[in-house]
Amino acid sequence: MPAVPRNSNTVVRRVGMPVDGEEPMTIHRRALLTGGAALGAALAMPHVVRAQSLAPQPSRYPDDAWEVLDPRFSQYMIGNTPLQREWSGALWAEGPAWNGVGRYAVFSDIPNNRQMRWDEVTGAVTPLRHHSNHSNGNTFDFEGRQISCEHSTARVVRYGHQGPAEVLAETFEGKQLNAPNDAVVHPDDGGIIFTDPGYGSHWYYEGTVRELELPTSIYHIDAASGALTRLSDEIFKPNGLCFSPDYRTLYVADSAATHHPEPARIIAWNVEDNGRRLTGRREFATLESGFHDGLRADVDGNVWAATGFAGEGQDGVHVYAPDGTKIGQIKTPEGCANLTFVGEHRNRLLMTASQSIYSIFTAAQGAHIA
């Protein structure tokens, strides 16, 4: 009998075994042959075909996932929408990016060395790329091309319209990059800013073990010349990042707490010359436990920060007002690594959370295309 996934609600009993109050089942040869053919056909189909299952136990509205810490967050909360577990089966899900044309989100399953595709229309999750070089963060540029940060090769690559990957960055001043983590694109000239904390170089589980040759840094790739510029190395573990809605501020999560006796922080800079320079470094927010990873901004300038390893009731998404005040949370059952706004109106939050992906509709709207 096929194995049933742990997270399935499918009710299973062996053929011929009676349930209390029932007569034993009789198996007819024709039914057995028909059932066997059907089973064979099902097993031959892609694994995204889902078993018939009972609907999940509904939650009482408003869903317990919402937590309002400041009245300003109330306007983004929807009282009659649930936190939904869309899929489970990753080892460490990361780097979601929304493709509005295809109506899908790509995300990475780093230890399994693959990229996955969540389809908004069907809800199906299917493999997009095997042997993704342990990719982490993904984004799309303003021509619809996918940009990925690879751990095991320590590269930033771009998938062109025909498919093959083009290497955009792999060395700086003759030294190999650490392990690029996450990236954003500036709309005015297509320049790319990415972080390079080196997580994919610390263990084979997420990349290739090697000594870091460069300081942990933030870089800029010039879209026209391909020139690579270091923007800052004054951050312990530069992780997720996002622009403010007007592209004048860059927010970067510093997950220092994973390797340094420092709390996790979000650092902000002023963006100069379309991202070729960063000025006015300042601390935007500090996290008492756990760390922030992926970041996204909404159209009102709030920063939505994926949060993990903070414990039950704190893991999920922390939301900060433009002045740095934490105004609300969306709690997830698993630690949350990254997030993106999806859908036609970018009002649905998709979260990569450890082994699963979750979604929840909000009254916010994501500020940027990916």
Give the overall shape, derived from the CA principal axes: globular
Q: List low-confidence stretches.
A: 1-53
Mean pLDDT: 89
Rg over alpha carbons: 22 Å
Give an account of the 3D structure.
This is Putative gluconolactonase. It holds the Pfam family SGL. The chain contains 1 helix and 27 strands. It is mainly beta. It has a 5-stranded antiparallel sheet with strand order 1-24-23-22-21, with no helix packed on it.
Task: Give the secondary structure arrangement, pairings included.
Blueprint: H1 29-44, E1 66-68, E2 84-88, E3 93-99, E4 104-109, E5 114-119, E6 125-130, E7 135-140, E8 146-150, E9 155-159, E10 165-169, E11 171-172, E12 175-176, E13 183-185, E14 192-196, E15 217-221, E16 228-232, E17 238-243, E18 249-254, E19 264-272, E20 277-287, E21 291-297, E22 303-308, E23 316-320, E24 326-331, E25 338-342, E26 348-353, E27 356-361
Antiparallel strand pairs: 1-24, 2-27, 3-4, 4-5, 5-6, 7-8, 8-9, 9-10, 11-12, 13-14, 14-15, 15-16, 17-18, 18-19, 19-20, 21-22, 22-23, 23-24, 25-26, 26-27
What tags apply to this protein structure?
single chain, mainly beta, five-stranded antiparallel sheet, four-stranded antiparallel sheet, 1 helix, 4% helix, SMP-30, metal-binding, SMP-30/CGR1_Lactonase
Task: Describe the structure in brief.
By secondary structure, this protein is mainly beta.
